[in-house]
Specification:
Two copies of one chain form a homodimer. By secondary structure, the first copy, chain A, is mainly α. Chain A is built from 24 helices and five strands. Chains A, B: Keywords: Membrane, Transmembrane, Transmembrane helix.
Chain lengths: 625, 625
């Protein structure tokens, strides 16, 4: 039944060999990896204008052009840089790997942590903002805001648990629709303008300059616009998800992605400029442009609808990046190894579920409020950019090779620019919530390093050198195995346990922990009637404890246990027909097991007894064996 | 640490022998068992007036006197009846036992179920109403209503987990204070009236008659007033909690309790009558009487405060009754046996915790609203009264004996009256919520009977007749024990498991489930270097499943397993130093264990490996053995 529901939701299990079929080429890979970038492109121009317009008024449009050009330059630098990274790290070269490889483990884990925090925030922010736009279009849905957010989250989670292949199929269509819609809008908008069919609105006179152009203002606007670039790193992380030759497919995807970002971001900046769009409350810049270009008709509503959908779809890039990053960090031992295991559909299900759970908690705690979530966002992505760029810079300086000075310059310049962006974002948004990230990141880094330390220590404890193997005779170290069978009464279950005990050792003791003396006497009497040489030990437990009298007995002189010997405690387990019967059984047994296993010389053997169906037993006449 | 917190909250564990010291005589038993009755006495008169005044106006006071006399008559009948029950059932004679004994198991379980539902509702209702009165006195607390309710619930829970002795000490003082305060108020109120110091208020003219006196109205008022009697059964349930001679102490307590109910209920009816108190919104009848008698001074506020406290304390009677009832039903197998086990402080901790949990859920679901909870209340108590009375009636008819006709008449009359009360309450309150109880009660009864059936079937499956014991040679049935050791790699842990396997059987197989073929080849190579005769079996698992390839191997011709033999699977368990390391280990092992134990021929032996402290391992040089 549970199996059936599971298969209905996520599909039938896939074989290991099916992994190649799960991978994508450019066509299906692009929309998955591009949705984050493309959706942020939609509002990057707006972010720049929001920063500039209140201060320098009409001058903003001139600076919008300069800043857009600078961002496009940075985009080209990042693209070249990540293209180099993909060629260098053909097994997936996210910030985590590049930084680990060139700057050491701590830098790598820091980059990985920063990126994973940003992935989680991407999911929370993009779902919240998409659903916010939906509920502001349909105000009657406002009171269900959180529920709709969680439903969208579950939908994304299930889609991704179904595997890479299916999720790329499910979630690609809206991305392509939005891309083509945007390109048509940009071309049509420019044609309309050139043809003199539309004249720009004239609200320019109303704009007042309240301050002067300053380096700080420009940097602030630049860093706001940098959100257009988050998501560019996604391709380099996802190289293992591409069909072979993976590096080639990934590089092609990266260049197409960059070209699309350039065209859409640049095009929207141009349109904002020629139509003199000013950000106003409740209407996005994208919305206003679409209205000017298409007019109040179907195309306008259709494009607006896809622009809402693409916001939610942006979360899908994080669903591609986070589980893969965690699986790589899990393989290296910085997070629990479960993250590296593929689920039934060959997706990294642990990562997908954890991502959904944390993003869901964030949405609930921040009440799905984008304004509260946004200040936490983007620091992580840019910190990981900086570390990755700086890692590549060091790499070129170390390995040298053809054109190394140019390559090092490109990556060094990228590192510098993104580092400045990190500082500006952290400073500007500190009080609004960025402090949370500044506190949480190092704590997580320390936690991940501590986990690694545990795995290293574990490996060292378990290690046997190959040279030692030859001399390692398993039989050498043979010790005595004692068996203790705790019994409460004489019944089919306890006798079955005693019988099993006899097959594994000649040193068996039946042990009763008595709380009620009368009951103990009856037991002793009945036990005496058995034809067996196994002694019965009865110990009175004044505090109704079970394990401590047993341990006390083992350590007592009464018991001929020698250091180095093993003791096996046989515990019967009732295996029941219906789930509800479980609450009636094996509870004490659970605690006994837990406490006994704290002792290295004690093995706990659990012996199942399959209970028959109650009705069947009661219908038949005699006792069963 | 956890142990320390536990001891701080509920005290040090008590020995079995301390049980006598935990029991009470009359002095400490009375307040525990009386708090429910005494608190309901406070508002029973009010309930009668609320029913009568809107219909028959000034005539109400005459009928209040008649109905009060009828309830006092019923009180005397119930007291005589329960006194007879206590003498007949000296080991505790609640409705469950009396009904089971004389009317059969289904009737007994029904009485027990009805009573336990009512105990749960007593806790929810009395805490909600006490805290409601508190928050209406201090309106700034209103928004914390639910939190204060839960805090009061936790306080009662902890007090009762500390054991009978301590809870009776903690919670007795306010009960005695309220009893003495009420008696003083009644005496002083009558004296003041007789001395002509106060004249009754004259609002009588304002009262309008809107209907005629009808049998139905009188019965309705009577059944509302019957709440004064809930709690009378508590003493008969709690006989085992009394010091020896328990029946004598219990009987004394019952009579004192009845006398107090008679005096306080009767006295308040008299005062309501002579002062012509009319129930008004926001002021209880008790409150108005206290104001008339004491005036606006300290005594008035002090008495009002204790009347609030006693409402909360009423829950304490349920804390005495519910766990004891569940322990008796658990002993008989109608509820899981855990309910019959005494905790560290010799209290029935499972019952106390379950009672608190369900009452807490009810308070949260019903938002602590007494108006919503009250309609669910009292049906259970009166149903159990009816069954218990009817049980005693049948008993006298069967066993006869001295005065049996009189005794049977008393119990029969009690059964009839309470049965009428049940029907009236169920009919009157059906739509308001009583339907929930009418649906839930039979479901619970069926559930409890099903649990009993399971325990009976279990006992039958496990049973070995005493006559068969002599012929039961444990060694007779000796079978072969095979051992399978699943290994993932060659390390200290897996070799330790193989070594253990060798001590318990000569038929050992090392078993590897391979997901990655390269890894499997390495393992095989390394294993070949070991000096051992244990064969290594490697099976490829295309769907990454662990248990099914193992089971398939066992059933295959490749493995020389014969039906009837046992297979022991040895699973290493890592025992870690810090709790957080647990999330990294033994997860797979848990699922393997669960799935393997479904097979009756498979024993799972868990072999603990104590991991050393990470820092210690990393500081030392070589690998450890």
């Amino acid at each position: 039944m549970i199996q059936w529901i599971k298969e209905f939701l996520i599909g039938k299990p896939l074989k290991n060999e099916a992994i190649q079929g799960e991978k994508y080429k450019v066509m299906w890979g692009l929309p998955v990896l591009a949705s984050d970038s493309i959706s942020s492109v939609g509002y990057a121009g707006e972010e720049i204008l929001i920063t500039l317009v209140p201060v320098i008024g009409a001058l903003s449009f001139m600076y919008l052009t300069y800043i857009s050009l600078a961002i496009i330059a940075l985009l080209i630098i990042l693209t070249v840089s990540y293209s180099q990274t993909i060629s260098e790290y053909t097994n997936g070269g996210g910030a985590y790997i590049v930084a680990s490889d060139n700057l050491g483990h701590t830098a790598g884990v820091t980059a990985g942590t920063a990126l994973s925090i940003d992935y989680i925030l991407t999911v929370a922010v993009s779902i919240s903002s998409g659903i916010s736009q939906l509920t502001s279009a349909f105000p009657s849905l406002t009171k269900y805001h959180i529920i709709i957010c969680i439903a969208a989250l579950l939908f994304l989670m299930l889609g991704n648990l179904r595997g890479i292949r299916e999720s790329s199929r499910i979630f690609s269509i809206p991305v392509y629709v939005f891309i083509f819609g945007s390109l048509i809008m940009i071309i049509w908008g420019i044609i309309k303008f050139k043809a003199g069919m539309v004249h720009p609105a004239e609200p320019m006179q109303q704009l007042k300059e309240t301050g002067a152009v300053s380096v700080f203002l420009i940097l602030k606007a630049f860093s706001s616009g940098c959100t257009a670039l988050t998501g560019v790193e996604a391709v380099s992380n996802a190289v293992p998800n591409f069909k072979e030759p993976a590096a080639k497919h990934a590089n092609k995807t990266l260049w197409i992605l960059s070209l699309l970002v350039l065209l859409i971001f640049g095009g929207i900046s141009v349109l904002a400029n020629i139509y003199h769009i000013i950000p106003v409350e409740g209407k996005t810049v994208l919305n206003q442009i679409a209205f000017y270009v298409f007019g109040n008709n179907f195309m306008f509503y259709f494009y607006t609808a896809t622009s809402i959908l693409i916001l939610v779809m942006a979360a899908n890039t994080a669903y591609s990046g986070f589980p893969l990053l965690m699986s790589i960090m899990g393989r290296d031992g910085y997070v629990p190894r479960q993250f590296s295991m593929r689920g039934d559909r060959l997706s990294y299900s642990t990562g997908i579920i954890i991502l959904s759970a944390i993003a869901g908690i964030l949405i609930i705690v921040f009440n799905g409020d984008v304004t509260l979530l946004l200040p936490l966002y983007a620091i992580g992505a840019f910190l990981s950019f900086t570390l990755s760029q700086f890692g590549m810079f060091i790499r070129w300086k170390t390995i040298k090779g053809k054109w190394w000075r140019l390559k090092a310059f490109i990556n060094g310049f990228g590192a510098l620019t993104t580092a400045v962006a990190v500082l500006i974002i952290a400073f500007e948004k500190f009080a609004a919530g960025a402090w949370i990230i500044i506190i949480v990141t190092p704590i997580l880094v320390l936690m991940f390093l501590r986990i690694k330390k545990h795995y290293v220590a574990l490996a060292k404890q378990l290690e046997i050198k190959a040279a030692d193997l030859k001399d390692y005779n398993i039989l050498d170290n043979r010790y005595r195995n004692h068996v203790i069978v705790p019994i409460e009464s004489i019944n089919q279950s306890s006798l079955r346990a005693l019988r099993f005990a006899k097959t594994i050792s000649d040193n068996v003791v039946a042990f009763n922990i008595s709380i009620d003396k009368e009951h103990a006497n009856k037991l002793t009497e009945k036990y005496a009637m058995l034809d067996t040489d196994i002694p019965l030990i009865v110990k009175y437990s004044p505090f109704r404890k079970v394990v401590s009298p047993l341990l006390k007995f083992i350590e007592s002189a009464e018991y001929d246990y020698k250091k180095g010997d093993m003791i096996t405690v046989v515990l019967p387990q009732f295996i029941v027909k219906s789930w509800w019967q479980n609450i009636m059984h094996n509870n004490t047994s659970y605690f006994i097991k837990r406490d006994l296993l704290k002792h290295k010389h004690i093995v706990v053997a659990m012996m199942p007894l399959q209970l028959k169906d109650d009705n069947y037993v009661l219908r038949s006449s005699g006792p069963h064996s």
